[in-house]
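Objective 1.3, modelling of assemblies. Example input:
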Amino acid sequence: MSNQSERLLDIDGLDAGYGDFQALFGIELHVDQAETVSMIGANGAGKSTLLKAIAGMLEPTAGEIRYAGELLAGVPANRRVANGISLVPEGRRIFPSLSVEENLLVGAHIGRKGPWTKQRVMGAFPMLANLAGRSAARLSGGEQQTLAIGRALMANPQLLLLDEVSLGLAPVVVKQVYEAVPIIKGQGTTILIVEQDVNQALKVADRVYCLLEGRISLTGTPGSLAKEDVTEAYFGLASTTEAGA
Amino acid sequence: MTWVNAIVQGILLGGLYALFATGLSLGFGVMRLVNLAHGDLAILAAFIALSSATTLDINPLVTLAIVLPGAFVVGVVLQRLVFDRVVGVDPAFAIVATFGLSIVIQNALLEKYTADTRGLYVGELETSSIRVNDQISIGWLPLITFLCGVGVLAALALFLKRTKLGRAFRATSDDPEAARLMGIDNRRVYGVALGIAVATVALAGVLLGAQTSYDPFIGPSRLIYAFEAVIIGGLGSLWGTLAGGITLGVAQALGREYNSQWGELTGHAVFLAVLATRPTGMFGKVQA
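Predicted structure (tokens):
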């Protein structure tokens, strides 16, 4: 592949799973500097497993993950944050006993320099400024999701991983949460989005991967993909479909 | 008036129990560790204070200047060498590991110091007291112990609330995996937490040794009181630990006032009553 200098994330032949259960098979994927890439796929396709492997919460069983040219194998999750990889985990995972402001401050724990500060995050998401002193446990789902994104930004990531940010939110709230993506992109941050909501994922992405039963079933730019192909790659309806990128 | 005196003595005793329980509460709160060796670590500290005081010919309370930093280091090392392998794997492993540590400490102390009963002699402080009236007098040593308990809890509460590391403690307590995603090294957090836990219980052990006699096997019985204080106050609540310690101390003192044999019984009875009627304790946070 060309353009090594622009390549921020490069995944080669990745297998991963939980115990005896293999969730990912030979994943080939790359994300370039300042790109926004969406990974779509049905429930259980292995999308979250992929993000966990990138963030260091799960050690792959085979294959390589390169970040900014360096192999990530053996680098613990907390060190990957310092290297510029931040994950907004599935289910938001905000710290319920901390206030909104404290959640943001914990996000800045490693003190990585960059465009995002508490003031900037609160400026970009005024909702968080209004709720600063409130216990994070008392936020609505959409507010928690915004907080989880803001908290990840506090680490000034170069690569932001968003895992199912639309999960369990009303469509209007999903739309609000996704308004954050162009703002984040505007700071030059590279984004990898994992999403079940195909429309939302296609709308914000420069490039799309579709994951089906642990294998990449389709890849391309949102404009180049026919709706039938996406449906097929997403649900695996056509029996003749061959897995591969 | 003797009842009032019993309550006063009970409150002061509660300060010691709270001091014993603080580290236990912290260890459980931050890393879900039930440390069965907690009481033995206190007694270990008391013996080390005894040896240091004898060797250097100084007041046992002065040895705290060596014992407390030493205890902190012991906690950090224990976390790295022992607990790091079992915490978060399976609660049963952690309990067995701490139980093993408890046995090791007891037998090492037996080997070195024999089964003789010891005490720390802190000079005049031991017997001097403030006479409030004919019935009530407050011993300086119990008062200092109580103030140490309150001071340690206040300092710890301030640390957790106001400092960056304290915030990391609370975040790790909420969700260790999510904390790692914030770049927090949970092993470091656990190390510092256990260091603080062992240092506080070492302080409790030395103050205990100054007030009463001890032997290598007394640790577990002290651990029971610490557990009861934590449960009465509510798991994970620092000020609850103080309230729990005081409740236990007062219950014991009142029981003893009624019948000298009853002290322990009334303490345990109050503990069981709290457990039966309010399992989350007085200030326990309801688990989400």
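Chain A has a mean pLDDT of 92.
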